[in-house]
Amino acid sequence: MAAAGVIAAGVVFYWQQVSEILAADVKLNVAAAGKEAASDFDRLLETDEQVLASLALTVQDSYPWADSAQLTDFLRRQTNHNYFKLLGVITADKKLYLSSHRNFTSAFVADISARTLEQGKYLSVRQADPLDGADVLVQSVALYKDGRPLGTLFALQLPDRYQPLLTLSAMGDKGSSLIIERSGNLVLSPRKVGFKNIFSQLDKTLPGSKELAKLRQTVSNGKTALISAPLDGRTRFLYFIPLERNGWYMVSSLPTQFVEERAQHLAVLSLILFASVFAIFFSLIFYILHMRAYSNRQLFATAFVDNLTGADNFNRMCEMFPQKLAELHGCAALVIFDINKFKVINDLHGYERGNQVLQRIAQVLREHISPDECFCRLSADNFILLLKYTDRRSLLTRLHTLNTQLRRDCTVEDSCLMIDIAFGVYEIKEEIPFYIMLDRAHLALEKAKKMSFDKCEFYDEADRKRIVAEKQIENTMEDALRRGDFAVYLQPKCDFATGEMRGAEALVRWQGAGGKIVRPDDFIPIFEKNGFILRLDMFILEEVSRLLAAWKIKGLKQVPIAVNFSRLHLNDSRYIPQMLRLVNKYGVPHELIEVELTESVIFNNLEHAQNIIRQLHGNGFSVAMDDFGSGYSSLNVLKDLQFDSIKLDKEFLRGFEHNPHAQKVIKGAVAMIKTLGIKIVAEGVETREQADFLQGIGCNLAQGYLFAKPLTITDFEHRLNSGSHPGIV
Ligand code: C2E
Ligand code: CA
Ligand code: CA
At what angle do helices 314-327 and 434-449 cross, to 10 degrees? Predict the structure, then answer.
């Protein structure tokens, strides 16, 4: 409404401005056109006057006009030559010679003659003959001979000669001119007008007007003037300009309506133009806004929507997370899940089918979650959910239901392939960044994936600490090896009866920061995972080789030393060559090196294990089976593999003292192994009772705290060479 008012006011203002500018412009044009018309009119009169003057010379010369026919003939010819309507001579005695016949009143003739002779020339507009009615323009000059007046030569012009000059052609024929006397009396007009004196006429419409008085004054002073005033039924611009003769004025007039029409026309055109520009402008703005909204939507879609499932993507989740968490008042759990072996679905059923499964998962999740919760697809088959959380049990029940629904709805059709989902849950308890929560949920997921059924795990702080510690170990292991932080401890293998040292096992120790000794159980499993164990074992072998070589050089006693080798070496083709290179480097006799391999190596590939053991034997190394009885030991392997000795695991022996059944099993196993000619080493012997029993059933050697703990090299050398027998002391 207000906008419409403003627009209307604007239009009115614009209209006024246009009208004013146009009026000013038109006034200038009227004045210019008036000037031009006046000068044309003056020129016409002057030309006629000059022609008339030159004709007068000829007429004077032919005086006395004895042959009247000759004079009239001359006049006729000159009339045709020039633009006069009629030429005539009035003699002093009022005799009339005319170029063509015409009636004149005697008063007309007398008056022309008298006025001409009086002034030398004469110009007027008047009625020549009341019978023909029309006014004529009369121009005349006096004729003289030897200073004596002879008469008058006069010419008549009809209105059609001067009337074209009274039309303002520059104003598109909308305007016209009048010739007046200074008094305002009408002299000539292009057509009949309803007044005789212009000032009296204007007086009627503008009685007592100051403007009119000023106009009269200006005109009487012979100056130009421009006014707008009602005249002859219309308001007009009137331009008064003096002519050169008779004190006449030309009044050029143009109806103001002409200006209004033009203003109207211009205003309408401008309005149409304005409206068009306005329309184009707004269309453009609308288009730009529309395109912006469209591209924003597109941008949002690419930035925040997962193309495949139409679900939110990870970016969107990150953005929404704080607000959603606040809406759940912190009682929330972050759940991450993935489909076990999703790649198999793709491989077996094609990507198209795999995609359908993901789309259905998204659909199920959409139906499952409430408005204050959210979810997104993280990558491939990974989805993240932020769920309301009250307690573990209800969340587990909910995830179980969700799992059932997903399995039901997303199972690949026409195949019996059921999708298998694992969930990792982080119960949000502290204010930590989103990505850390996600890491924790991931950690739980990794654990859940290892489960065989009900694959759902909650994040456990201990797991994180363990992983951090593992990471710490991994980060420092290279430097530790370079710095020599790994040390060899030797644990003696002793004769039961005498306690005499018959050998030793090399056990690694990590001398950590501040002299803290780290036991192998804390880092060996990590090194087994990352492969570092391959280098560590070789390092230990080299240390042992160097030690044996040093003993020899020093003339000390040498005993065989067992080195533990991880099962990873068995798949490494460099294993035996590397061993040989190291041992030979120090010139150590091969029979002094014993290789300890755990039972598990054999399960993987019996034939390969046989091959390796054969090569070790071929190179003179003896081979021991470590940790016998700790896992799923099978006596069966013993028949296929040529071990030189077997180490009974301490777990195998645990608590046998009070268990006659266990004693029988151990006894049977030992007897059986002995029949194969394999030596038996009992590990973890801690009590005399154990030692007696094991010795009694025929074990060959003992390795355990009863006899000796793992010793530093210095302590070991000391004991070895002092001859003291550890367990016996
Ligand atoms: P293992 O080969 O079975 O080594 C024997 C383990 O039993 C040693 O633990 C030893 O200290 C411990 N032990 C010996 N006597 C007794 C006893 O009377 N009572 C008890 N409770 N324990 C006893 P350690 O040194 O902590 O080594 C643990 C495991 O780490 C070893 O078990 C071995 O499998 C592995 N390991 C140690 N050093 C190396 C190495 O250089 N290379 C590889 N691959 N593994 C190693
Ligand atoms: Ca061992
Ligand atoms: Ca062992």
Answer: 100
